[in-house]
């Protein structure tokens, strides 16, 4: 969330004192992230130690907390996991917070890879870390707790509903950003319907294939990789772990334009760390379309329907949604998969 939700910082401090034994000196809202259902803060304790706090407006997704903690316990150090409260739980209720929940993390000084980029060694480390995640065995150990890929394109219904709304002559928007995006959607309605149909056809084909399923982060783009000032990287934001083909994560490397463009050389460095692997191009293409459809739905919902959103943030989301259809953008390049990985030898 980029707009301050105005939570009472004294109540946040009291929560951390009660549940973590943390004496808080200051709480500062951080205007970062795109999650409309959470806000993040830098917390400084009275001993000057710094922490990163996520407040979710509703219940937490417990698997998203259990998975990074379990990975650290299995020897994957480049993962950012929540700290345990006094009760040993990985979260606590925000006192008087109307069902809000709080998750506390160590504060890592650094910048996300979308801004900072990554060195050659960091790209190789990223590859090796993601291989450890995929090979961790947690997909089997947490079976029943983690959602599994169905290739059902869950955001398609929302996009169709929003498209019908903007095409309705009776629909009008007071927000200039919403009006611009609505006009853009109307002008690209055929393209939107075509990509929905293509993605759904691919999903139907993939459901019939015996694809290997592994634990996936499912949103491991550059903005969710924290590059520490000490040179270490940390995989963050485990909000939606998924049991899925490994391509669900490789989407963010193979020819990716998400968050930042992954250059061919960076892709090769990643696979030098990840190791030989057989990548299915059709699955990559499906996930590219799914990402566009998901983001179209989320951006459309925020721009058209969210009364809490300020005009500046609304305009930023509208620009991102329109950017998918730019020349050389995600829609234009969705079907192009250039192999830069090394497949494992036969036998």
From TrEMBL:
Domain of life, per lineage: Bacteria
Coiled-coil residue spans: none
Domain Aminoglycoside phosphotransferase: residue ranges: 32-275
Gene3D superfamilies: 1.20.58.840, Phosphorylase Kinase, domain 1, Transferase(Phosphotransferase) domain 1
Listed name of the protein: Aminoglycoside phosphotransferase domain-containing protein
């Amino acid at each position: 969330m980029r707009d301050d939700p105005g939570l009472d910082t004294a109540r946040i401090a009291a929560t951390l004192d009660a549940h973590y034994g943390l004496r808080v000196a200051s709480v500062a809202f951080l205007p970062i992230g795109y999650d409309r259902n959470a806000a993040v803060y830098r917390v400084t304790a009275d001993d000057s130690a710094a922490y990163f706090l996520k407040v979710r407006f509703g219940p937490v997704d417990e698997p998203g907390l259990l998975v990074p903690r379990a990975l650290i316990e299995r020897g994957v150090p480049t993962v950012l996991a929540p700290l345990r409260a006094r009760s040993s739980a990985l979260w606590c209720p925000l006192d008087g917070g109307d069902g809000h929940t709080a998750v506390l993390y160590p504060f890592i000084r650094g910048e996300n890879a979308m801004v900072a980029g990554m060195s050659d060694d960091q790209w190789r480390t990223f590859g090796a870390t993601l291989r450890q995640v995929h090979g961790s065995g947690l997909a089997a150990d947490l079976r029943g707790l983690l959602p599994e890929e169905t290739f059902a394109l869950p955001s398609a219904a929302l996009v169709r509903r929003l498209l019908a709304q903007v095409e309705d002559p009776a629909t009008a928007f007071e927000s200039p950003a919403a009006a611009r995006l609505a006009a853009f959607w109307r002008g690209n309605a055929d393209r939107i319907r075509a990509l929905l149909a293509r993605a759904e056809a691919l999903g139907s084909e993939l459901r019939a294939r015996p694809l290997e399923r592994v634990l996936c982060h499912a949103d491991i783009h550059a903005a969710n990789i924290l590059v520490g000032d000490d040179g270490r990287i940390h995989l963050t934001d485990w909000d939606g772990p998924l049991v899925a083909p490994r391509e669900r994560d490789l989407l963010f490397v193979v020819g990716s334009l998400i968050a930042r463009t992954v250059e061919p050389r960076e892709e090769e460095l990643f696979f030098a760390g990840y190791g030989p692997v057989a990548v299915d191009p059709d699955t990559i293409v499906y996930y590219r379309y799914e990402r566009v459809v998901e983001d179209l739905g989320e951006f459309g919902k925020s721009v058209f329907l969210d009364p809490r959103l300020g005009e500046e943030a609304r305009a930023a989301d509208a620009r991102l949604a329109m950017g998918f259809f730019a020349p050389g953008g995600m829609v234009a390049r969705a079907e192009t998969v250039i192999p830069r990985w090394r497949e494992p030898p036969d036998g």
